[in-house]
Design goal:
Elements lengths: L10 H12 L6 E6 L11 E3 L8 H9 L2 E5 L5 H6 L7 H12 L6 H10 L8 E6 L9 E6 L1 H12 L15 H12 L3 E3 L3 H5 L8 E5 L4 H13 L15 H4 L1 H6 L7
Parallel strand pairs: 2-3
Antiparallel strand pairs: 1-4, 1-5, 3-4, 5-7, 6-7
Helix pairs in contact: 1-9, 4-5, 6-9
């Protein structure tokens, strides 16, 4: 029996359509964990960082400059490395992080350890690589999308258009790569995150941006949902009608949902 060929996803086409419908300021990012460091050599045009960095800086290099970036343990600080599966969680490192966070984000070591006990981690590997999704350089484990709250609302509405489910999202405090990237990686569910201080200081995330970590298998579903909503006149950008208008004659959504509003 002939083996079925793996489905080839046209990431460039999906990206182009999502950008047409949502108009984000930057393009989606493909993220992949690599079991062995040598796998980086098989990725076209990969740039290996030759310096220390925060993980927050890597998505910025991809979405703002268009680079393909490979990262290994030596590039990242302990916390970034552990969240991305590049370093083991040892008691020594837990103690160091808890002490650091007790002097910054939390009242004491005990409170810091509560956070550390709850946030998800990407499974162990030797490298991670990020690239523009449209480049199609590899099939991602997670897709990262940066957009404003209105665009995120439409993205999630698109995902809910068929096979509805109520989405739940998390906030651990400082460390949005755990709330988004690692949460999506470990659960296979979309994960919306509020970018943390590190993402804003080092990753150039703007004040109006949020980040969505999306399972790759749901990219087409999101686009198809957005297309269906647009066909019904529900699309980005949102037109502002204001508090003084008559909603019964002004809003496409209002007139479809409540055609007899004033007869009740």
């Amino acid at each position: 029996m002939k083996k079925e060929e793996a489905t080839v996803v046209d990431w460039a086409k999906l990206t182009q359509e999502m950008e047409r419908l949502l108009r984000p300021k930057t393009s989606p990012i493909a993220y992949k964990r690599l079991q062995k460091m040598g796998e980086l050599d098989r990725i076209p045009g990969v740039m290996r960082l030759d310096r220390r960095a925060t993980f927050c800086q890597v998505p910025a290099l991809v979405r703002r400059i268009g680079l393909t970036v490979g990262v290994t343990r030596g590039n990242l600080g302990e916390r970034c490395a552990r969240i991305n599966g590049l370093a083991a969680t040892t008691e020594k490192e837990v103690a160091w992080e808890a002490d650091a966070f007790a002097r910054t984000w939390f009242a004491n070591v005990e409170e810091a350890r509560k956070q550390m006990a709850e946030y998800p981690l990407v499974p162990p590997g030797e490298a991670v690589v990020l690239a523009p999704l449209a480049a199609g350089k590899f099939d991602p484990d997670v897709i990262l999308i940066y957009a404003n709250p209105a665009q995120m609302m439409f993205l999630m509405n698109g995902l809910q258009f068929e096979d509805y489910e109520r989405f739940q999202f998390f906030f651990i405090g400082e460390g949005s790569c755990a709330d988004g990237l690692a949460q999506c990686y470990t659960t296979g569910k979309p994960a919306l995150a509020i970018p943390c201080l590190g993402e804003r200081e080092f990753g150039t995330v703007t004040e109006d941006e949020m980040v969505m970590a999306l399972p790759p298998a749901m990219m087409a579903k999101a686009v198809e949902g957005l297309q269906a909503l647009a066909a019904r006149g529900i699309a980005y950008p949102i037109k502002y009608l204001g508090p003084s208008c008559d909603p019964s004659v002004s809003s496409v959504v209002f007139t479809q949902i409540y055609p007899d509003w004033f007869s009740h």
